[in-house]
Predict the 3D structure of the following.
Amino acid sequence: MTFEWRNDYVNGSHLFGEMVRPAIQLYTLRDLEEPLTETLHRIADKGYEGVEFAGLSDESPEAIANALDDTDLRPVGAHVGLDILQTDYEETVESYQTLDCERIIIPSYGEDGFTSESAVSEAASRLLTLSDSLIDEGFEVHYHNHTYEFTELAGDFDTAYDAFAAQTDDRLGLEFDVGLARHGDVDPTLYLDRYSDRISLIHLTDTIPGKDNSLHVNLGEGVVDLNACVRAAVSADAEWLIYENGLTTNPIATLTSSMTRIQELLNTA
């Protein structure tokens, strides 16, 4: 099934092919009892155009690369933890090169890295050094926020995230997660506007602040102003809008409902 809006969406002067495109973070579907290659076909059938990896399961990079070719899905990027990059750097680099996956995203750094300006400075320096290595391997490198980056800091910056952005540069893109930012008690659209020149990947997530078990909820079930976030993504000329619900208990239903909701959001952006 292919939605007409993938080819025909028009909004003002924007054609859909020239603007933000929909992808899904595969962590959302990790509980499906099927090979990852089969999941990729399922995703493509729903109308998604890209996937963001969170590991490769037990399948070979070659098999996954073939499935990407068969489905025309783009390997938008891969979330790779710092621990994996420390212990399995060469294997990880080789695997994602096999997939023609050009982006490595650090999914989190840890709360200790955002408790003070000096802690932020240390985290920023470490990630820039890692970025230099991965850039030499042919990758773009991005950092994905959690909630704790939005802790208020005394001094020159509103939040630890602002200090982090100031102490890094274009070697490290910012993959902005709107739901986690909202859970961290900030307005995500403010940050999408503020750092639009650093943001090409946006995690479209919804949340209900206050509890860990509502960190992620299905789109429309939380408090995030999704319409405003998608409009900000379009204004920022972001490349990919990446859906995630890491807490879903029904991944098949979530896959279907998220694509329907993203279709609506893009059609009205």
Observations:
- The radius of gyration is 18 Å.
- The longest helix spans residues 117-136.
- The longest strand covers residues 74-79.
- The chain has a mean pLDDT of 92.
